[in-house]
Amino acid sequence: MENDKMLPQPSAIILEEQTGLTLTEVCQACAVRVEYIVELVDEGVLNPLGREPHRWRFTGTHLRRATVALRLQRDLGVNLAGAALALQLLDEVEALQARLLAMGRN
Hints:
By secondary structure, the protein is mainly α. It has one domain (3-105): Orthogonal Bundle (Multidrug-efflux Transporter Regulator, Chain: A, Domain 2). The protein has four helices and no strands.
């Protein structure tokens, strides 16, 4: 992860899942430059609503995914493709855990 993509870290932000965050707001919340979020969208890590970057809208889930991708890159030195794969695997684990939980309730 290149240091020129990172900005100073914010102290704390609390968001609801239904919040329609703009590209600028996601960048501020993650303390990254616009180019980084665009790369996450291009890699398929984030799938915002809207076709053009100035119309993109993100949720709290998108923000969480961006934060995890950033931490994987910054803390573990994982490249963007590796971070995308790790997030996909985490999604699959969560889905399997939900299925197991649902099976346990039957």
